[in-house]
Amino acid sequence: MSAVAAVSFSLVSCDNDKGVRPQAEEYVEVRFQAKNLEFSASPITKSAPGEGLYGVQIKNRGPLVFDSYACWVTDDLSSQTFKLVKGSKYDVSVVFVPDAKDIIENENGYYGAPFSSDGMYVLGGGLFKESPQLGHGIYYSSSVELVSATRGIGQRKGKPVNKLFSDVPLFSGGKYFTADEDVTIDVNLYSCMFGLAVTVENLKEGKVHVYHGSYTVNSYEAAVQNELNIFTLTSSQSSLDVELEMPNIPFGLDDYGMKNNCWSPCWINIDYEYPDGTVVALYSKSNLEVYRMNKYSLTFDLDEMLNSVTGGLKANMMDEKWVNNTLDM
Q1: 37 Cβ neighbours under 8 A, 6+ residues apart
Q2: Bridge partners of 177?
Q3: Phi and psi of 221, rounded to 5°?
Q4: Spans of all domains in the chain
Q5: Hey, how many other C-beta atoms are within 10 angstroms of the C-beta on 298?
Q6: Which string of DSSP letters, residue by residue, matches 251-268?
Q7: Higher per-residue confidence, 176 vs 15
């Protein structure tokens, strides 16, 4: 899969409210050629995606600050070129979702995560940033960003936003460069998914719930109240094998980073629900580091787990003496 930009765009946004870039004496014209690396390595196989949506974020690369320079969402990278100040340094980040128009929540050309400004808020924009709109063109502005592209929260149609353990297929890539001359940039897009497989033996009744935990949401009841993505296993379906977005997406990493330093913290909780509705915790791992294109598997015997977590309780009365302390006036 490749796309080469061919049509030149003016420096300023189509919408005056989006801001105008300061004039410079000389610019270079840049075109895109985005490629997908086809994966065949175990345990997850990813082939080149077909049609979908691209989110592009360009930032000035300074010594300490990375200011937004330009941002847009497009279904065809060949439809646009963009201009950069000659001699300046930039970070270019690209996120891609196959078939995004069919699977990502959208309204009036605004798309949910990972193409929104903030996955916690409305499609058109969050509290601090505006979202790019498909068909608008390039926003040369610091007020428009793909903030949600850094989180594992791809928003499927009809689903709540800002929920971990999303199964939206997502690819990402980036490049750091200096705008010395007119150039076509190659950006390799890598899968940002990891695999999770859970097999429960002797699940004869009740349910097993698998979900992403946190310090504020660390029980099945809290997960339901917060509308988290929960995978439920039963006697008829006692195994889980899914591909999920990394909780923190490596948006903007270059080839070296994607290949060698691409991991995310993950918190896996597994609870058991008895037929009467009582829920007990079976497993919780809060410090798991998940790497993209790696599958993490867990198999356990439910009878053994229940015996260990719901054993008998014995209370011992301890013979203790009071210690007297005098308070100062």
Answers
A1: 188, 189, 190
A2: 90
A3: -60, -45
A4: 16-192, 194-309
A5: 15
A6: TT--HHHHHHS-EEEEEE
A7: 176
**Where on the phi/psi map is residue 327: left (φ > 0), alpha (ψ -120 to 50), or beta?**
beta
Note the pLDDT of residue 180: 84
CATH 2.60.40 applies to domain 194-309: yes
What is the CB neighbour count within 10 angstroms for residue 287? 7
* Residue 17: CB atoms within 10 Å: 8
**In sequence order, which residues have a C-beta less than 8 Å from that of residue 30 and are 6 or more positions away?**
5, 81, 82, 83, 84, 179, 182, 183, 184, 185
Q: What is the rounded CA–CA span in Å between residue 41 and residue 20?
A: 45
Q: What is the DSSP string of 37-49?
A: PPB--SS--BPPP
Residue 114: CB atoms within 10 Å: 31
87, two tokens:
């001699």
| Non-local CB neighbours of 236 within 8 Å, separated by 6+ positions | none
CB 31 within 8 A of CB 41: no
> CB within 8 A of 180, min separation 6: which ones?
28, 86, 87
CB-count exposure of residue 77 (10 Å: 0-12, 13-18, 19+):
buried
Please state, in angstroms and as integers, the Cα–Cα distance from residue 320 to each residue in 178, 317, 323, following that order: 73, 9, 9
Chain segment 222-232, per-residue pLDDT in tens: 999 888 889 99
Q: Render pLDDT for 260-275 as a digit per residue (tens, 0 to 9).
A: 878 999 999 999 999 9
Determine the Cα–Cα distance for residues 77 and 91; give it in Å rounded to an integer: 17
- Percent of the chain residues topping a pLDDT of 70: 73
Question: Which two tokens mark 236?
Answer: 């008829």
| Closest to 296 (Cα-Cα) out of 203, 214, 193 | 193
Q: Is 85 in contact with 59 (CB distance < 8 Å)?
A: no
Tell me the per-residue pLDDT of 195-248, one tens digit each, with 9 for 90 and over: 999 999 999 999 999 999 888 888 999 999 888 889 999 999 999 999 999 988
